[in-house]
Structures are given as C-alpha cells and as structure tokens.
Design brief:
This protein has helices at about 10, 20-25, 35-50, 75-80, 85-95, 115, 130-145, 170, 185-190, 190-210, 280-290, 330-340; strands at about 30-35, 55-60, 100-105, 120-125, 145-155, 155-160, 220-225, 230-235, 265, 270-275, 295-300, 300-305, 310-315, 320-325. Strand 13 and strand 14 (about 320-325) form a beta hairpin. The N and C termini lie far apart (about 55 Å). By secondary structure, the chain is an alpha/beta fold. The protein has two domains: about 10-235, 3-Layer(aba) Sandwich (Rossmann fold), CATH 3.40.50; about 265-340, TATA-Binding Protein. The chain has an eight-stranded mixed β-sheet with strand order 3-2-1-4-5-6-7-8, with helices on both faces. Strands 9-10-14-13-12-11 form a six-stranded antiparallel β-sheet, with helices on one face.
Length: about 350
C-alpha cells in the first residue's frame, strides 16, 4: 500500500506554511481562469501544493503552437484539438489524485461568472484580455474574495494580489488600457522562462493568501523583465473614490462593459464567435452536417469539423472557435455556410 502521508512534508516544514497552512490549502478552492501559458504553470503549482479543489476554466482548444510554453499539454492534445480545460484536468489528475478538479470548457462572461466562480476562495489570472481581468476584479470586490492578477508578454510581465479590504485593480487603473495599443502574445511573442517566473510569483501570492497569510501580500504590483533581470514595484493605495471598491460600481460584472463579439484569440490563427444558440444540440448538428464537411467528430462537450483549411469547434455553451483564420468575417461566413448561424 502506498504511503502518501509525506507528500507535503517539505512544504509543511516552511514556517510560512506549517501544518495549519497546509490544512487551509487542502480545504481551499481556487479557480484558474485561462489555461494558456500562465494558467498551466499556475495550476500545476497549486495542484502540487495541495490546494483542495481547482476549477479550471478555458474557452480554447490545444493547438501545436501552444506546446512551446503551455506545460500541461502534450502532442496528442494538439493532434486531437482537445479543450484545454479537459486536457489540463487529465494531466493534473495524474499529478495529484487527492484533489478535486473541475473542468469548464467555457468562455467566462458576465452571464456565467457568478455561477462558475461561486465556490472559489481565490481566482488565479491566466487570461488574455483586459475585459476579463476587469470583470474578475469586479467579481472579487463584489464577493469579497481574493484575485491574483498576472500577465506576461514578450519577456516581461506583472503580478499583483487583490485581497478584501486592500486596493483593487481599479484603485490604480480605473480604466483598462486601449487593447489596440497593447502588445499581445500574438503580436509580440512570449518567452517560456518569462512565463515560469511570473507564474511562480503569482502562485506564491495565491498560496500565501489561501494558507491564511493574506496580510503578508504586499499591496501593488511587481513588474519583471526576465530577459533584462529587472524588477520594479508599482505601489498601490486604496482610492477613496475608486469606482469599484468605494462606489460599488461593477460594469464588467454586470455586462454593461466588455461585451465581446467575434474576436481573434490570443494564441493566434483562430477566431471565437458567439452563436445565436444558447444550448446547441450537438448531436442534431452533427447529423445535419454529415456528408457536407470533413473530419466530423462529436465529443460530449463539443463538435469538430473541417472545411478546406478551416477547422470549426462548436461548444455546448453556444459559441464556435474557427481555426485557420484571424478574420472574424471569414469565420462568420463559414459558420453561416455550414450552420446557417
């Protein structure tokens, strides 16, 4: 019989964690939103540390270009085009079978955020757009929960812990930057070691909070350029006029801001399109498409098919991902041709 009693022994020896902190970790629930490079590395660290339940949320499927830096996926995942949430759950189950892992192959929106994050004590940020980040900040302030902000692009990134009672994201940045003026992993690339550094810093903040040491999380944000080995702290203070934590205005959480139409995804060469199908009958759609498309495959939570150089994934939550283009018009035209959507 296997003796697993010493799994967390080295971690418990840390005075920062100890036996009490480990018990807190094992009873905690963390949601990892976005399972790209940062989310993969962060989820792996949290799972190995023994966080009792992880809610894994991602809207995308695994692509070959992900394997350079997204550490939870293997070639078979890319070959099969598996939803990232499901592939990550399978890998993490092999890492730590003692924790609970919930996979949500979904796009986190104002319509589902309250339900998907209802049980989360903390949200770990692995997202790729400012609208979702500002929505997570809204949620954290509204619910009085913790949010660990993290972002990385090129060779640099930033980490910050938002905890109840402290300054929130909007105390420092009331409005998100204009997306058109900001580099993305699609436009600027991303260095794998930069991901590892930023994810490690973010996971450290998450473990600190979940282990009951939230008071030790410094307010503000740490900017790190891994290539230049330069670190700079952006200090933050609670703003008495903050739109979120002072005035309790939550436009992203309520869906008044940040509504997204068809848009390219950060991984590149793909467009996500919301459909006018709240809960599509995937089996019925598969039957309708039989003989008209190539490589048709029906899975429990998505339907996959190919038309020429374009590949379509239809998800049970009422959206489509079209791979092989970054042109929303081309993606919509293909869906209209094949689905009438």
């Amino acid at each position: 019989m296997e003796d697993r009693s010493h799994r967390y022994e080295r971690q418990i020896r840390l005075p920062e964690i100890g036996a009490d902190g480990q018990r807190r970790l094992q009873s905690a629930t963390a949601a990892v939103v976005g399972l790209g490079a940062l989310g993969c590395a962060g989820a792996d660290l949290l799972a190995r540390a023994g966080v009792g339940r992880l809610i894994l949320i991602d809207r995308d499927v695994v692509d070959w270009s992900n394997l350079q830096r997204q550490s939870l996926y293997v070639e078979d995942d890319a070959r099969e085009g598996r939803p990232k949430a499901e592939a990550a759950r399978e890998r993490l189950r092999a890492v730590n079978s003692a924790i609970r892992l919930d996979a949500e192959a979904a796009d986190l929106t104002a319509q589902n955020v309250q339900a998907l994050l209802a049980d989360a004590d903390l949200v770990f940020d692995g997202t790729d757009n400012f609208a979702t980040r500002w929505m997570l900040n809204d949620w954290a302030v509204f619910r009085g929960r913790a949010y660990v902000y993290a972002g990385v692009v090129a060779t640099y990134g930033m980490v910050g812990a938002i905890v109840p009672g402290g300054p929130c994201l909007r105390c420092t940045w009331p409005e998100p930057p204009a997306a058109a003026g900001e580099p993305t992993c699609r436009s600027a690339g991303v260095l794998g070691p930069a991901v590892a550094v930023i994810a490690g810093l973010a996971a450290s903040e998450a473990l600190k909070i979940l282990a009951g040491r939230a008071a030790e999380a410094p307010p503000g944000f740490l900017h790190a350029d891994v290539w230049q080995q330069e670190f700079q702290r952006v200090r933050a203070e609670r703003d008495p006029n903050c739109p979120a934590c002072a005035r309790r205005d939550f436009p992203w959480l309520e869906g008044r801001r940040g509504t997204r139409a068809a848009e390219p995804v950060c991984g590149g060469n793909a467009v996500q399109v919301p459909l006018d199908l709240a809960a599509p009958d995937l089996a019925q759609l598969a039957q309708k498409l039989q003989g008209t498309v190539a490589e048709l495959r029906l899975q429990p939570r998505h339907l996959r098919y190919r038309v020429g150089a374009l590949e379509v994934f239809l998800f049970a939550d009422g959206r489509a991902l079209v791979r092989g283009t970054e042109d929303p018009a081309a993606a919509r035209a293909l869906l209209a041709e094949t689905l009438g959507a």
